[in-house]
Amino acid sequence: MKKLIIKRLLKKYRPSLVVIFGTYGHKEAREAVRTVMSKYTKTYAAAAADFFDNLYDDTGGFWGSMRALFLKRPFPHVCIIDALPEEKAYQELRKILSINVVIVVPVGDIPSFSHVFSGPQKAAALITKEIKYAQHLLINIDDETVRAISDKVNIQKRFYGFDEHADIRVINVKNWLDLS
Questions:
Q1: CA 155 to CA 51: how far, in whole Å?
Q2: Taking the model in full, what pTM does it have?
Q3: Residues near 164 by Cβ (< 8 Å), separated by ≥ 6?
Q4: What DSSP designation does 167 have?
């Protein structure tokens, strides 16, 4: 029931969809994008697996969702998710909303959680297939596997990372980890 209501709300309001793929830093990337975007518009961010349930709760449960469905109510203009390409919730969401931006964070040389022992190439291949649904691509230039994805797609792309050739260059990183 929750999923059906949220699907109808998404079809009614048609928010922009930002999808974050990758193994390392996807949660942090989701929160960073949400933090920046929420200064300009109403946003919602969640992992793909939790998307439908959490958005249902975020809209006020049953009664809040009903009000949003039948009346003009505030609803997120941008939805940000981190997902694995094969996740069922992501696949359902992609059928409802078009993907505006895909952000690819490092895949790395350690196997991703969904492809244990298969290496990063399998994850990169799945991500490459999903990028074709996006309008824009923001890709990490520091990871060789991820950088290779950019050669295989023909959409508007920008690079970010520590490399001097990045369009968005990371030059000052502070680690806020406090172990005390």
A1: 26
A2: 0.84
A3: none
A4: S
**pLDDT tens digits, residue range 73-119?**
889 999 999 998 889 999 999 999 999 999 999 886 544 444 444 45
Q: Decide if 134 contacts 155 (C-beta within 8 A).
A: yes
Burial class (CB in 10 A: 0-12, 13-18, 19+), 180: exposed
Query: Consecutive sets of 10 residues in the chain, 180 residues long: mean pLDDT of each?
Result: 92 95 88 92 94 92 91 90 92 93 80 49 84 90 85 88 87 62
Q: What are the φ and ψ backbone dihedral angles of 103, each rounded to 5 degrees?
A: -115, 125
DSSP class per residue in 130-145: HHTTEEEEEEESS-HH
